[in-house]
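Section handout 9: paired folding examples.
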Amino acid sequence: MKKTIEKEKIALSSKTDRFEKYPPLTRKLLTIRGISTSEDAEKFLHPDWKRDSYDPFLIFNMEKAVERILRAIQNDEKIILYTDYDCDGIPAGVILHDFFKKIGYANFENYIPHRHNEGYGLNIPAVEKFAEEGATLLITADLGITDTEAVARAEELGIDIIITDHHLAQEGKIPSAFAILDSKQKEDSYPDSMLCGAGVAFKLVQALIQRGKFAQISDGWEKWLLDMAGLATIADMVPLRNENRLLAYYGLKVLRKSRRPGFNLLLQKIKVNKENLTEDDIGFMIAPRINAASRMDHPLRAFELLSTEDPARAEELANWLNHLNDQRKGLTASMIKDAKGRLRARELLEVIVIGHPEWEPGILGLAANNLAEEFNRPVFVWGRDTDGKIKGSCRSDGTVSLVELMSRAREGAFLQFGGHAEAGGFTVSSEGIHTLEKELSDAYRAMEKIVKAGMVAVDDELSLDDVTWGTYEQVEAFAPFGMENPKPVFLFKNAEITGVKKFGKTNEHLELEFRNSKGNRIPAIGFFTGEKDFPEVLLGAGEKVNLIATLEKSVFRNYPELRLRIVDILN
């Protein structure tokens, strides 16, 4: 565990006097987030859809894209909605599907590539198939900005491509699409360049409704689509600032009122209370199940779960997805156990490369993430896909950028690679895999390292008497939490433990009990946590510890309880 505390020291000077209407804790949390005006504070704490959302036509090429889609609708052209297979692309596909269905347009098809058989992105065989079937317009979501060859082939075959994406284009390689909606383009001046794929798809639907003036769509109907935009915004871990905060904030509100039978049945299966749905439920319970579809089977079934209106089909798909996720967890646990056993039996280099021909490619990233945390170094995990290619996923320990690391390997070491600083994917030859670990370790030693902060960042120091519903309400005003808006972390100094217990099927969770000055019980929970995680600290009744924790509301069995979530425990 991390053993030093980095406490953010924010002076509440005259700069924060403009926040006088807010309590001291709220003022401090605003200042830590770089919010320095009362106007920005009001927008952050009290999002307003009408005031804070942006005109979709501010996105570069939006006018052109909308004109082409409306022309296709008018001429009854066959339209393909081609989206990615993760918990960004699938909700984006649902958004576009629901729009076309709402306006009564039938000549369209949702298409999601098979992760293992087709891989990521727009592929040429699929484009050729669409052309044979008479498609003349293809709209992507959450992909396409790097698919220059497939886009060129579509153009040859008479298919116009409208790319909606949020990834970076390759240097000097812009696809020759009819229109590209991606606010990371140099020409784009949209006020928020960090929308996820489903966020861009939502803005496209907004623009289509504004220009098309469809009789079937009542004023404000598109807000029901915020459930999918919000789900993806939270799941894809884009910064929850600016318009993304608005999409996540209102997306959760709509999800809590969801009319989607598949989504509601999935929540029932995993015992998540819809009325109290949080961003943690999405990140830890819902998104992994949506992603399990592409990792273990076909993503179109997860898409169908979210889009179907048939309760019987929704029941079948919810059961299937939950079962699939259980399989995924079992396979991942087995893979990680195997990998750890082999790694502990050998001398480790600066970079770990490990794999097995029978390891499932779809879950390699989950294993790589676990191993990077366990062994504190970059990890590359590989398996063999259905066509015999060695493919893998990699995760960084935070000391180097993976893309830079892979680019510094010997030319030809990778057949393909991509990703970003923290995560990536790669393809390597059967011969090259044997020397990859040494080559990456050599490249790692030559790189300048990022110094990792071995500290827990603490927002403020509280006492156990501060653990009240009033304090919680101040913290909750900053939700939903995520990238660039982390859940506030607090230090409780010299807190005396009054009880210790383990719970869960195999006693895998830890609960510490504390009491405030009035004798009121305050529980502190650590899931998948035990005494072994705090080897230098005595955890027993009467012991005093420095507890680092967040505040949270539990609604187990519909009984609201205020408690602490353990982040770290220090002497």
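Moving on to protein 2 of 2.
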Amino acid sequence: MKKTIIISALAIASLGLSSCDDFLNENRFPLDKQTDNPSYWNNEANVQKQCDYLYLNFAGYASSEFYFATRSDNNASGTGGGFVDWINTNVPSASASWSAPYEVIRQCNYIITKVPGSTLTESQKGKYIGIARLIRAQQYYWLVRAYGDVQYTDEVIDPANEEALMSPRVDRDVVMDKVYDDLDFACKNIGNGSKTTWSSDLAYAMTAEICLYEGTYCKYRTLADNGKAPDEARANKFLGYAATAAKAVMDKNYSLNSTYIGNYNSVSLENNPEMIFYKEYKIALLTHSQINYIVQTTMIAGMSKDAFDSYLFKDGLPLSKTSCNKNDAGFVKKGIIDGVGATAIIGDELYIGDLLAERDQRLYQTIDTCLGYGSTPTPQKPDAGMTWARVGSARLFSSSGYLTRKFDNPEDIDWQYRQSGNYTCAPQYWLSYVYCMYAEAKAELGTLTDEDLDISINKLYARAELPKQTVASLSSINDTANDMGVSSLIWEIRRCRRCELMFDRDFRYWDLVRWHQLDKLDNVKNPDIRLGANIKNGNAPYAYMSGDYMLATPNNNRIYDARQYLYPVPQNQINLTFGAVTQNPLWK
């Protein structure tokens, strides 16, 4: 098959340049004379340096995808007025979602084509080529996930090769087959590493993630919305790849961390037995501002009622089936003391701690025990023993009333100084995530057993203080909230994933894409995604209400749009290729 790509033309589209030569003659990685010299690649330190640049593709907490993912039914938009619309409402002239991955792919292809001719050992060559192929797979996955058919190459394109530069897109299934080939090579060749460096364990975890996406996407896609009909055989093939890759990680020496919140609010994850790969931050050296999204004096995006209600009760049953106390209205708790001086009374709070005690303990470790709106006190502050106290006198509030504590830094005392310079480490791939992928792949294949649950989901349930489940028990719950047209078993597996990964990266949005469930982001059809907490017992007014519940975003709606299953191709990209690259049909 003819190899195709358009690196320079798409970069021109984003930079506003006028010719291929202008862009390619710039001194960009790795086209300078030094790295083009064969002797350069004979030095392992140089090759390692080139691979180290690829770490930048793991954004960690530098990305707003942790917590602040507004394309979700987990967060009620925190803008104080408008409901956050789709990311694409018109065809853009240019987009980094298209251009940026191709720049990384060119970096990867340079390593892949230069290392084989070096004097490195075969083992060293396999490791570094494997790293480059792993990231190339990641970038093509991101492109296909967003755009469907994309341009493809596994070579560094000569800028004089106009035929390659102006070539059309390749069928997305063909590209994803090549993505799997890259992943398979990476798993077999990278080898051992630490939790902050490249390893085959990381490659297996990424393989599980990408193949689960591909398997479920091919199972649930439609010709009308996705441009391709469902393909059961293809779906099962990739679901099998996902289950196998996940099991390869599960068979290694990893185990769950003792606490759920410890994966997210720790200043070091080095000794966390659950971590496969994480991004390390160090005080005063490499920091982030993740806390800025959850600790502000302006309105922040709070958890939606829809997300709150997705958590099971302590009897292991959902809201529609439980015999536990279903009350969701907090009560006024008086005499809250200042956690700094431990003497001053700073006010009352609308307390929901008793409500959280009735539910999955992941919820308790994700949101605060008081509601944040109007004149409520500041959020809770953990100490080493998970005891919580108030800090400071400022008042915080969220769009839904629910305040997030999942990403707090336990070493910081005053929240007012945590808006930047934070140094908690960011999980990228970890065991509980792998457990969710394994269980879902097996459930979608129809091969999930009680033994599979015991080595995956039931471990997560135990940590969340929920009862053990069997395939039969999950299959018989039949939650009336199941609006996805799937079995009770798959619905419950998806619920566990949602709760385990609440506010993590941008998982929820892409889950809805691959399950063909983007209509769940339509707030007219699903009003609970912009509702917040029940504050009927509160003593502070709130401007927007729906009955007893806070209304997070009253001014506009987000309506389901089937075009959103694929991004629009940037118009400049179409223009630069003289129409060889075409627009996705629903965006024409």
